[in-house]
Amino acid sequence: RFLATLKLIELDDSRLKKKYLKLLDDSDDNIRVLGLNIVAEKEIYEGIDRIKYLNKNAVNLSMKILTAQSLMRLGVNKAEKDLESALEIPALKSTVELLLAQAGRTDMIDQLKAKYSELNDESKSALFNVLIKFGHEDFVLERSRSSLKNIVGEVFDQKISLESLGKLGTFNDFEIIKPFLNSPFEQVQVSAVLSMIKLLDRHKSDFS
Q1: pLDDT score of 135
Q2: End-to-end CA distance of the chain
Q3: pLDDT tens digits along 67-126
Q4: Which of 24, 73, 91, 120 could, after both became Cys, cross-link 35 (CB 3.0–4.6 A)?
C-alpha cells in the first residue's frame, strides 16, 4: 500500500484531491504522513479540519509536529507557534528547524544553510529540495560543485551533488560530472549518468 501511495503522489494531480484527502484517514502513520505533505503541498484547504483533529489527538510527538507543520503550510497561524515551542526540545530541534524551513520560514532556511556541513545525509537532501523550492539555487550549485572537486569523497554528498547539477547545472557542469562515470561506487556512477542525461536534455543546443 505504501508503494501504491507513493505512485499516487508522484502523479501530482489536483484532480486527485479526494484521494489525497483520504490518505489522512489511513490507519498506517507512514501513509498518513504522505497525505499530510501532499495536502499541504497542493493547498487542499478542505483537509484542515481533519489535520486539526489528528494534531489534537496525536499519540506521539512526531505526528504532533508533522500535523502542526502541515497546518502551518495551510495558513493556520497557531500551528507555527506550536512548532516553535518544539524548538526548545533538544532532540527535536534540528527536525523542527527543517520543518519550519520547508514551510517557508526564511530565518530557518538561513540557519540551516549556515550549518549545512553539520547536517546528516537525510537533512542535507531535504534542505537542497527546500532551497530549490524557495529560490536558493546558487547555494545548491555552489555546494554541489565544491563537493565534486575530488572524485574521492563521501558517497551520499556526491550523489545529491550530481543530482543537483543534473537539475540546475549549466553546460560547463558537464565536465564536472564526467569523471564520476568512473567512480568506484555504482550508485555514484548511476547518479552521474542520470545527471548527464538531464543536462544533455536541457542544453541540447549547446551540445550540437
Answers
A1: 92
A2: 45
A3: 999 999 999 988 998 899 889 888 888 899 999 999 999 999 999 999 998 998 889 999
A4: 24
Alpha-carbon span 6 to 43, nearest angstrom: 18
pTM (global) more than 0.70? yes
Burial class of residue 81 (count of CB atoms within 10 Å of its CB; 0-12, 13-18, 19+): exposed
DSSP string covering the chain: -HHHHHHHHHT--GGGHHHHHHGGG-S-HHHHHHHHHHHHHTT-GGGHHHHHHHHHT-SSHHHHHHHHHHHHHTT-HHHHHHHHHHTTSGGGHHHHHHHHHHTT-HHHHHHHHHTGGGS-HHHHHHHHHHHHHTT-HHHHHHHHHHHTSSSSS-HHHHHHHHHHHHHH--TTHHHHHGGGGG-SSHHHHHHHHHHHHHHHHHTHHHH-
Cell of 49: 479540519
Torsion of CA 18, 20, 21, 24, to 10 degrees: 150
Other beta carbons less than 10 A from residue 133's beta carbon: 14
Q: What cell numbers appear for 148 in the block?
A: 565534486
User: What is the tens place of the pLDDT at every residue in 27-45?
Assistant: 999 899 999 999 998 999 9
What's the pLDDT score for residue 207?
56
